[in-house]
């Protein structure tokens, strides 16, 4: 069939032969000799588990919603040969559960990853195809987190400034978190661009790591009341550095800090999560900021 001149082409059934788009000599069942657009649909996920999610008739899904790590265990509506691309539009990590009983059997996912579940970082992508013969979604490719069977380098960058006001309570940074599998070792490096609107707040930081893990991480920054750089070593999850960085600095509108160390996990996987806060509650309107372009990097090494 060769249709020209129309703006709308209606459904048709072709028995035998090939169908061509922008070609008069199709060489396959469907031969497309032009670009192909698959427009996205939005899916709002929830923090925690998302089971048997419904994506409708779309093949490109942009996920939004979660403010904490979340899980997808199954996807409804699979038909034989359907190709699906999921884009994580959040800054949180998705865990794609492998063969999870939390979803109906026909909606489950096979990751074919040697360590089972896979992790998709914020702004990451996973692509899969549905097999009716197996009644499963099969992962074709993904931008995954590290696993114990591979080596790699994993970056997390801040895309926007993050500011706290008059708070001395350590908080998780919105973006500076690197996933790590069980029984792995990872070198951690980073650069922080920190600033404040006053000379009193100061800056303190910590890392949290999975249960049973060990860490030895050095942080370096400008010490209190001087222009000297001071080092501090973090070895306990969630325990702040002993140095009070930048307190009393008259020129600390913008200051750099540097991070370098190692984390080694035991039998529990999880995140290497950067935390920070002000040293002093300096009063209403007094802010401390970790600025865009700050980053952390995890480099997996073999144990």
What oligomeric arrangement do these chains adopt? single chain
Helicity level, as a percent range? under 10%
How many domain regions? Answer: 2
Unreliable segments of 5+ consecutive residues: 146-151
Q: What is the percentage of strand-forming residues?
A: 35-45%
- Mind telling me the CATH class of the largest domain? Mainly Beta
CATH topology call of the largest domain: Jelly Rolls
Largest sheet, strands/sense/barrel: 8 strands, antiparallel
Provide a count of the helices: 0
Distance between the termini: 61 Å
Q: What is the element string, with H for helices and E for strands?
A: EEEEEEEEEEEEEEEEEEEEEEEEE
Radius of gyration: 25 Å
Secondary-structure-derived class: mainly beta
Q: What's the count of strands?
A: 25
pLDDT average, as an integer?
A: 83
CATH architecture of the largest domain, please?
Sandwich
Overall shape: it is: elongated
